[in-house]
Design goal:
Elements lengths: L1 E4 L9 H5 L5 E4 L2 E5 L10 H5 L5 E3 L11 H6 L5 H6 L14 H14 L2
Antiparallel strand pairs: 1-4, 2-3
Bound molecules: iron/sulfur cluster (2 copies).
The site of one iron/sulfur cluster (SF4) has 14 residues, from α2.
Length: 116
C-alpha cells in the first residue's frame, strides 16, 4: 500500500497522479501530491516505478497501512528499490537485458524464412 510521498525528493511532476489506476492521489498545486484515498491503493507499484525521483514508497503489504516513517525508508534504501529490482531505472542493468531468448527466436524466424 502507498505509504509515503517524500517532500524532499518530490518535484511535483504529478506523473504518479496520472499513472495511478485507483485515483489515490490529489494534486496539490506547487507541492507533492497528497495521498488522499490510501484505502483505494491496489499496491500495484505503478507510482513507485514511474516516479523519476524515487520519491514514493509503496509497502508490499496490500492488506493495510504499515507504520513506517520516511526516515526509515531512507535509511533502509527503500525509495525506488522496487523499480531498481525490475531494472527500470537508467544506467542500471535490468533482467530483460540479460535475457537472450530473442536470439533463439531470431534464429528460428530465419530458419522458417529460409525453409530449413
Ligand atoms: S512522480 Fe514522484 S516526483 Fe512526480 S509528483 Fe509523484 S512523487 Fe513527486
Ligand atoms: S501503488 Fe498503485 S494503486 Fe497504489 S497509489 Fe501507487 S499507483 Fe496507485
Amino acid at each position: 500500500m502507498i505509504e509515503i510521498v517524500s517532500p524532499s525528493r518530490c518535484t511535483a511532476c504529478n506523473i504518479c497522479v496520472r499513472v495511478c489506476p485507483s485515483n489515490v492521489f490529489d494534486i496539490a498545486p506547487g507541492a507533492p501530491p497528497r495521498i488522499a484515498r490510501q484505502d483505494d491503493c491496489q499496491t500495484c507499484f505503478m507510482c513507485e516505478i514511474y516516479c523519476p525521483h524515487d520519491a514514493l514508497y509503496v509497502a508490499p503489504n496490500a492488506e493495510g497501512p504499515v507504520a513506517i516513517a520516511e526516515e526509515e525508508v531512507e535509511r533502509r534504501g527503500l525509495f525506488g528499490s522496487y523499480a531498481r529490482a525490475l531494472g527500470w531505472k537508467d544506467g542500471r542493468m535490468g533482467g530483460t537485458r540479460e535475457d537472450t531468448t530473442w536470439e533463439l527466436r531470431a534464429t528460428l524466424d530465419n530458419r522458417k524464412k529460409s525453409g530449413s
